[in-house]
Amino acid sequence: MMQKENIKSKKEVAKKVLIITGNVIVYLLMAFAIFVLIISISSKKDADGTATVFGHQLRFVQSNSMEACELTDVSSFEIKSIPVKSCIFIDVVPEGEEAKAEWYKNLKVGDVLTFKYLYSRQETITHRIINIEDKGAGRYIITLEGDNKNAEDGLLQQTIDTSLENSPNYVIGKVTGQSYFLGLLVYAFNSTVGIICLIIVPSVIIITFEVIRLVKVFGKEKKEKLLEEKKKQENEIEELKRQLAELQNKKKEDDSVSKVEVSIPTIVETEPSKKIEKQ
Questions:
Q1: What pLDDT shows up at residue 269?
Q2: Which of 57, 100, 218, 264 could join 90 in a cystine, given CB atoms 3.0 to 4.6 angstroms apart?
């Protein structure tokens, strides 16, 4: 008996754990999906196609120039290869000459920069620093190149002179992190199928779980109410039985008293009559 109760208790605990875990996963996915949706909407609103979150600019890689390549060793660098569609987090170059000079001073070979560069038109590029030349007074000449030597533009190098004012070639910021998964989600939100899978389906799942939970809650409350009413009726019936038993007992007592009162006068009347006759 104890063993069965223990097994039942363990099953109930496991069931509760699964329910809680499922709820947490669904709500986390929803929160993440909402976060991605906000980023996606913000990116569309920005004229430059960017969004800023927690002080970092978010951009999405559209070329394969920074993908992994056997000809390039990036194992010792903080930022590794960056696949197409990845979301990258950019620490933007600060305003002010002193802050900007300090920011450039901390750059090193191997860092990845996002920058504007003019070819036939101005493009936004994300490449790795392969050389830094210090010109003094916080000015630098930075040479950059893509990791993927097999890409069509992989061998192209870009040179940015930070001392030039109003140059079409300038640094936007340094890449401090990346997320391929987040990038895929944002791209997915730009399609009808993605919106269905990432917003509508999770919403339907959550609503379904909530409806089931509410049905169970209302069903339990209804059952408890019925049991309470049944118990109340049983108590009322027991009370009526008790009152009926009291009335029956009282009636019996009254009948007994009546019999005693009737028999006593009879005895008193007969005995004196006999004595008179004897006299």
A1: 52
A2: 57
What's the chain's Rg over C-alpha atoms? 44
Contact 172, 88 (CB under 8 A): no
* Domain of residue 139, CATH code: 2.10.109.10
- Residue 158 phi/psi, 5-degree rounding, is -125, 140
Q: Tell me, letter by letter, the H, E, C secondary structure of the chain.
A: CHHHHHHHHHHHHHHHHHHHHHHHHHHHHHHHHHHHHHHHHHHHHCCCCCEEECCEEEEECCCCCCCCCCCCCCCCCCCCCCCCCCEEEEEECCCCHHHHHHHHHCCCCCCEEEEEEECCCEEEEEEEEEEEEEEECCEEEEEEECCCCCCCCCCCEEEEECCCCCCCCEEEEEEEEEEHHHHHHHHHCCCHHHHHHHHHHHHHHHHHHHHHHHHHHHHHHHHHHHHHHHHHHHHHHHHHHHHHHHHHHHHHHHHHHHHHHHHHHHHHHHHHHHHHHHC
Q: For 64, which DSSP code?
A: S
Q: Is residue 275 part of a domain?
A: no
Residues 116 and 170 in one domain: yes
Domain of residue 123, residue span: 48-189
Q: What is the pLDDT of residues 63-86, one digit of tens each?
A: 999 999 888 899 999 999 999 999
pTM of the predicted model, to two decimals?
0.61
